[in-house]
Amino acid sequence: xxxxxxxxxxxxxxxxxxxxxxxxxxxxxxxxxxxxxxxxxxxxxxxxxxxxxxxxxxxxxxxxxxxxxxxxxxxxxxxxxxxxxxxxxxxxxxxxxxxxxxxxxxxxxxxxxxxxxxxxxxxxxxxxxxxxxxxxxxxxxxxxxxxxxxxxxxxxxxxxxxxxxxxxxxxxxxxxxxxxxxxxxxxxxxxxxxxxxxxxxxxxxxxxxxxxxxxxxxxxxxxxxxxxxxxxxxxxxxxxxxxxxxxxxxxxxxxxxxxxxxxxxxxxxxxxxxxxxxxxxxxxxx
Length: 286
Ligand code: G1P
What we know:
By secondary structure, this protein is of the alpha/beta class. The protein has helices spanning about 35-45, 60-65, 70-80, 85-95, 110-115, 145-160, 220-225, 240-250, 270-280; strands at about 5-10, 30, 35, 50-55, 100-105, 130, 135-140, 160-165, 175-180, 190-195, 195-200, 210-220, 255, 260-265.
């Protein structure tokens, strides 16, 4: 069975819900406590044993790549001043095992289109993870669980695609992909077989209240399905629709219910909450 070595992280969005912050700063570079959002997400991938990151990006967002690149002038200056702690902080951003590649999404045609922009970087038949960087997934306070790592282990054991989910109130189902587990919903840290997934349903059409969080472990076949995926909700090419087709053609897809907590940093209120809570947990007096 092929190992999951790559995570595709789409970062080409405009971040309109974070305006005016995100006018000239990529939303992925907005800080959460002491590091940019994208660094938290790359750390999550590394914790799950995934070292190869593919950024799907666009013009005006090169500071994301710069963040993971060497900065010789700064490093020399810190070394000359004997600032070893800061040098260590810089080195920890991109450990030697981390490999970052980027591709461009020439025009915004939806999440499915963004993911497909990275198809040629996968080996034949290679499975991959997708991480949507707006949402941080953190373990419960005091716990060390890594939900994405658990999803990779489940893929290794069963070869079933894994889609991370959490319950949302009924009035919020229209904002997410909503999964159908035919009533057999997984408990935290467990997976259950899915039989469908719908992008942004109305409360009447929603098959459950389990929403897709933005962490996926997917087989290569998804790329083939995306290659001719017609536009869906919002007239965009939806990853959700390709996952639904994967199930309909008989492949196993499971909903993995996270153990941890989510912080939606894609809007001002969620981002402020993440900063306040996580800063306190890190020992800052705020
Ligand atoms: C995307 C996905 C959706 C998922 C959501 C999680 O939607 O299409 O299925 O539930 O991310 O944040 P977006 O937020 O890009 O509209």
